[in-house]
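Reposting from the mailing list since nobody answered there.

I have sequence plus structure tokens for a pair of proteins and want to know whether others read the tokens the same way I do. The first protein:
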Amino acid sequence: MNMPYLANRRSYDDAAELMALFGDNAGYEAAARADRSRDVGNHIRFCHWRQIERLIVLLTHEGPLGTIH
């Protein structure tokens, strides 16, 4: 899995908020928000919510990911 790009603190805050509100379904909510943004032609918000979806997967993973030093 590629590590998601975080442009700013808002990305983490959005992911944490969705996880608090939707629990295990937070990734699905982020995907739905991305789809709605795409449908109205907002490519910036589409990309934002796709990255949030990837971040949620990363945050819910139990074990370490990537290189361990």
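The second protein, same order (residues first, tokens after):
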Amino acid sequence: MESITKLFKGNIRQYGMIIALVVIMLLFEVLTNGLLLKPINITNLILQNSYILVLAIGMVLVIITGHIDLSVGSIAAFVGAVAAIMMVDWQLPAWLAVIASLLVGALIGAWQGFWIAYVRIPAFIVTLAGMLLFRGLTMIVLEGQSISPFPGGFQKISSGFLPDIQFSGLGLVSIIVGILLTLWYIFNELRERRSQRKYGFQVVSQGLFLLKLIVVAVVTNLFTFVLASYAGIPNILVLLFVLIVVYSFVMNRTVMGRHVYALGGNEKAAGLSGVKTKKVTFWVFVNMGTLAAVSGLIFAARLNAATPRAGTNFELDAIAACFIGGASASGGIGTVFGAIIGGLVMGVLNNGMSLIGLGIDWQQGIKGLVLLLAVAFDIYNKNKRAA
């Protein structure tokens, strides 16, 4: 018990939000009479929140560096509009339009990153201007009207599923993927534990380590079993998984990731240590622009249309996901995994409150309260450690 308490205290942000997510899911499972965790609703949760989770991955890097980006919703809308013009009006191949749209997002990120990193205008001001600018450009490009429909292949980004083999009502490919992911996770954890012991780092007890492996294995295979019971693994879930793995690796195992954390922790100290702070800031915003473009493409594919109102409040949901997931408002603290957990908390809240029939007024109020409590919890823990 002492080991469990010590482990929890050392990872209170991460484990606290995981526990909160589980509690919220169980609460709404009861309140909705079992609707929340039905296979079709779990799949809908993934599809409905995928574009916010993509934004949260990029936003957590921005917040770690001590900045904020208010323009991502407008960028997503603008990129969706540009993609619609290329695919629907100009009849360009979907793959070419997607590449061009990602380049547009990267260029927008570079534009904003230049003003923030090199001209030293606060990110709040630059991205607030970007929010207004690109929302206006979206309306100009679309001329106030929606453009649709997109090609079928493009729509499958958000509505398609991996090919599966049905057996007794279950998708075998989904089940196999769950088993392979479990084996991959166990292999990585064993290798990491062996490496830590080799270099003399402290590791958790063998009992706790085995418990962790068992819990993750059960949750992973239960999740893929639920997906297999409906339509299988959504294409967008594969994209999300790749983004989570890549960005987690970059932030935890590369020099670039360490520089991002160093910049957010203390910019002057990072500069004196050899970190090219302006360059890091610039590329963080280029990355944010690219992921905003990805989010815009996902949303446009799901909606099967580009609309002037697309992306509204996306930035607020992404920022809330990061703070709920443990990112610090003062910078230097946060994880990709935490941002995903925070995004899932927001997604489950939205979905659960809709299922029980709560109005949008109550939903907004409750989400605001959850965000406030999450930040207050972060500040309380920080003050407690400093005392």
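Reply #1 (J.P.):
I read it the same way you do. The mean pLDDT is 89.
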